[in-house]
Amino acid sequence: MRSLISTTLLASLSVLGATQAVAQNTYKVAYIDMLSGPFANVGEIMLTHVQYAVEDINAKGGVLGGTKMQLLQFDSKLSAQESQSALQAAIDQGVQAVITGGSGSSVVAALVQSVNRWNSRNPGKEIVIMNHSSIDPELTGKSCNFWHFQTEANTAMKMKAIANYIKKTPEVKKVFLLNQDYAHGKQWASYGRQLVGLARPDIQFVGETLHPMGRVKDFAPYIANIRQSGADSVITGNWGQDLALMLKAAGDAGYDLRYFNHSAGGAPGTVTAVSQAKMGRVTWVAEWHPGQAGVPKAEALAKAYKARTGKDFLAPRIDMTPRILAAAINKAGSLESLKVARAMENLEFDSVVGKVRMRAEDHQLLIPQVVNTIAKVDGKTVTVGWEGTDYGFQTDAAYSGNEVAQGTECKMQRP
Question: What domain of life (predicted)?
Answer without folding.
Answer: Bacteria
